[in-house]
Amino acid sequence: MMEFCPHMMEGDNKLCCTPSQAEGLTKQIAQARHILGRCPSCFDNFAKLWCEFTCSPNQQDFVSISEMKPIEKKEGFESEYQPAEAYVNTVEYRLSTEFAEGMFASCKDVTFGGQPALRVMCTSTPCTLTNWLDFIGTQNLDLSIPINTNFILYDPAKTPQSDRSIFMNVNFTGCDQSARPVWPACSKSECNKEEYAKMINLDDGKTSGQSCNVHGIACLNIFVMLAFIGSLAVLLCVGFVFTSYDEEYTNLRQNQAGQESPKRNRIRRTGAWIHNFMENNARDIGMMAGRNPKSHFFIGCAVLIFCLPGMIYHQESTNVVDMWSSPRSRARQEETVFNANFGRPQRYQQIMLLSNREFQTNGKLYGPVFHKDIFEELFDILNAIKNISTKDAEGRTVTLDDVCYRPMGPGYDCLIMSPTNYFQGAKKNLELKKEEIVSDGDDAFDYFSSEGTTEEWMNHIAACIDQPMSQKTKSGLSCFGTYGGPSAPNMVFGRNTTNYQAANSVMMTFLVTQRTEPEIQRAELWEKEFIKFCKDYREKSPKVTFSFMAERSIPDEIEKDAKDEIVTVVIALAFLIGYVTFSLGRYFVCENQLWSILVHSRICLGMLSVIINLLSSFCSWGIFSMFGIHPVKNALVVQFFVVTLLGVCRTFMVVKYYAQLRVSMPYMSPDQCPAIVGMVMAGTMPAMFSSSLGCAFSFFIGGFTDLPAIRTFCLYAGLAVLIDVVLHCTIFLALFVWDTQRELNGRPEFFLPFKIKDLLGAYLVGRQRSTDTFMSQFFHYSFAPFLMHRITRIVTGVIFVASFIATIILSSKISVGFDQSMAFTEKSYISTHFRYIDKFFDVGPPVFFTVDGELDWHKPEVQNKFCTLPGCNDTSFGNIMNYAVEHTDQTFLSGEMYNWIDSYLEWINRKSPCCKVYVHDPNTFCSTNRNKTALDDKACRSCMDYDDIANSYPKNHVMYNRPSTEVFYKHLRHFLEDTPNMECAFGGRASFKGAISFTSRGRIQASQFMTFHKKLSMSNSSDFIKAMENARMVSRRLERSIDDTAHVFAYSKIFPFYEQYSTIMPILTTQLFITVVGVFGIICVTLGIDVKGAACAVICQVSNYFHIVAFMYLANIPVNALSATNLVMSSGILIEFSVNVLKGYACSLRPHAKDRAESTVGSIGPIILSGPVVTMTGSTLFLSGAHLQIITVYFFLLFLITIVSSAVHALIILPILLAFGGSRGHGSSEASTNGDDEPVEVGMMSGTGESHAMEEGVLNRPTLLNTTHLLDPLLKSETNELDLKAIDIITIDRSYPSTPSSLPCTSRLPRAHIEPDLRSL
């Protein structure tokens, strides 16, 4: 009484209570101390309330009996005092409003376990004075409240002086005042929340301090970038107007004639030299291959032999963490530190049962899940899971007991978070019978209860929901599980209402250890059987909807679903190979022989070209595998698609270029093959080299990111592109030479033993069929003129500018993240489990705030920086964490905060029953879990009684109540091994055994403080991203609270998966601008200092990026590793398309920019559209039928958007920009001359045909001549001599109609070399 009610012991005051009542009073007040003790003033006011009620001499003035109940006679019970006929059931307790409101004000901000302390002492939330008094005044035998107390409040200001004795009105202590001389006042965190919030100020500006940013980049930087681009655009426009648009054709004609233009400056001469150098070397390579294709073939084979053996080291990373997070990332490094100090967090296995029944209409528990047969099934499931067993590699049996986590130690059961814990895991305890409780052995009050219901098991669950920490309900059972701890309702019951009494589902969570690799292997083996059991049980569960998930479920399901989609991917690849194989050649019959259809088909060349692309990918894999750089799973399929797309573009360019040479030349003989191949290489290899270098640069820049999925894809793809160029210039070139020789010799494919006899006739027919396609005719005569029409260009330009601005605005709104459910099919059990978790459960993943660094924890000034007890710093580590947990909306933290230093200081406190040593041996710890029957409690004394250093200080000194250095570390080990019990709830074995890491000297190296995130939506990754960012914000504030004396970081198992999203947009945007600069330089130099053309390509590159991002926003596709890969791919694809357009534009000899752009669209357009665009679009369409959303969204929809957007920019936007004044180009070194030694362009139209078709600058289609009468004598007569036909081959050639030609740089062989071959034929 002196400790709890000192105000009643002053002077001659006497107590009006029996010794047993006083003992009962002090025991119950001591229990309240655990909840309200963080604020001594609050606890003192609460103690005064009950001290006055129980023992005040003036009790009769303010306490009166309202109801009596008769006492039922019980055998074996004898009252301590004179037997009575009735007992008090309800009383009236009159209080002054001044005391009641003062007491409530001192307690309303006090916290307990990270939550408001009054939350566990109130009937509703938020807690008010009325609700609080109703709760503590309502009879509840479970909480040792024996009678009903009606609190009546009186306002002293409105009560006459004579009547003031009818209510209790002792002085209260404000929370900012000290209640006792040696007691500290309440900390500001427990007293004035508003003032404390200003003191804490969690937001340090690093998370949300930027007032303006786009994609994580400050608006100022964006403004600078846009200003630079705008200035560049203005300069380009001015340059186009004054230098290009109306420039005469004279200078270029003089250049072709060998005359140096006076306007040609040094830069243009350098560009011309680069242009001619690349064409001449490309021609030499082609001619060497034409003369000796075997050497090129074997050089390519040597490259394969060097690269492919590295495939033996090839491995795919199947670790989900490795797929999404780099080992060098902050989250992974912090994970390494955490695991090194505390071991890996436990593995989770979950089962959820969702009731399909209706809500009940009566009882305390009315949720659909509270049916006895459902709980019986729950027990059956639990017992079946405990019996699951498997064999490890050594033949040993592995069960749940072998792999489970036991927080209390080997003597306790596995930690299984389940409602079955309320019945100690015993199904028989469901058969509870009502027992009338007379007295609890530890209770000094005598009382009876005659209330109860038949469904006693439900009453017990209701009591445990209200008070999970209850050691014994009125049903006679504890709420603690066999593992030794409680089960929080939010972890075992699911609901879609506001309370757990209406729960419609239950959750069972099994924790499995994974400290070492053998433990992980055993855990995975057991989990495999666990999943098998759950799948079988789900099929035969009629009473409930059954869902489940294990730790290994995600990688297992990803592997399974990937295998299920193999058929879809194979069909897409088959279409890709088939289209390329059959679209390269032309199919027509010569000499009425069906087999002749294979003469011009190029089936083998197309198939082998795709195989070369595949080998390029394999070579890239081999080289990187030799250096230990392994890709993430499924990235290789994407890489193959991209490399094939780029390779197909090159293949089509080469083959179609050759096809147009056939149009420009009257005849090709097999002997001229080296010269022909040389011309083909001169026209295609420079563009191939430029585009490949640009693509590789774009990919390699993407390889600098730390995101594994993007990094490995970019590195592998970049190297594969370069290797593919090498193989195209060696193996493919050799195959092309052989196939061309076969075609010119009139032999069919597949080594068929046939040969066309009339080579000239077949050549002339094939000459027209080579380009007389719908695509070529449409682009040349319809699309190109329409696109270059003045009105069309203006309208398209306006639309482009408007859409560019709109896409910049939309792209700033794009979100980042990844919906986890997209990785699985709708029928997957994981998808079902995720939906139920989102809908019914409201607890988030745990988060550990780790203090890494050796501190002097034994010093009170260090302890005060971490603890939350009275006397600790207001801005201590623990107080800030409590504040963060209370402000869930700001921090995304919720639930109880586990602070080991608080528990340890409470445990070792002088007045605590926890830390004691034997009197006869002070060096031996005396645990409260000892066998007390053997020794009397007086045999042990407080640990602090033997701390000579602490005892040397005055009692009012802080050091008197804090252990010395030796005692602190000596008993810290005992604290961590002490199991909590009813006598001592502060034992650290359950909660803190693994929370402290020691050095070899026994000092603390690191420690962690655990709490939980709030509920995070599984389908909304922004919740996880914000949770991580806010946790890191709190950790930075915590580090400042300890004066930066140690490193503080927040760690959760989810952080490695979501850390990438906090930096992915700045990384991608930065890489875009680096790529733009690099591509500008590469295109500018490799195309002969083509500044204007490179600038146009860069504008398209930036526009393409923002258009794709804007489409992603409209399609609700967030930015993540998968979509970022598509953005990187878009750069490479557009570079490949753009370089070919720029090359065609530069080689055109037409006088005006518009005409050159028109000829380029008409020539390059059909090749790009019918080649790579149709190839990849067609193959991706097959992916739309996949079951996985991740394939339909990221590999179908987004890839399709990427292809279409890149094609539109290359074939529409870029030509229009060039039409406004692109570079004049350097012409072609292969330019031919007509009979008058004038240069003749045989690009879009042959020189003769074009001159007749130009009318006022408009191209008209020439009339096709019927040449059948000229060809018939050659095709039908085999016996007549050639000289009898009187056919002038040159006349045939000159009268042959001009047809669309595909490449502007197409040129003729000198006619002097061709005529002798024709005449000899």
From TrEMBL:
It comes from the Eukaryota. InterPro entries: HMGCR/SNAP/NPC1-like_SSD, NPC1_MLD, NPC1_N, SSD. Residues 565-738 form the SSD domain. Its main location: membrane. It is found in: Membrane. Keywords: Disulfide bond, Glycoprotein, Membrane, Signal, Transmembrane, Transmembrane helix, Transport. The keyword Protein transport does not apply. It catalyses: cholesterol(in) = cholesterol(out). The chain crosses the membrane at residues 222-245, 297-314, 566-589, 601-624, 636-655, 676-701, 713-738, 791-810, 1064-1087, 1094-1115, 1167-1188, 1194-1220. The keyword Transmembrane applies. It is a multi-pass membrane protein. GO terms for cellular component: membrane. Belongs to the patched family. PANTHER family: NPC INTRACELLULAR CHOLESTEROL TRANSPORTER 1 (PTHR45727), NPC INTRACELLULAR CHOLESTEROL TRANSPORTER 1 HOMOLOG 1 (PTHR45727:SF1). This is SSD domain-containing protein. It comes from Caenorhabditis briggsae. The lineage of its organism: Eukaryota, Metazoa, Ecdysozoa, Nematoda, Chromadorea.
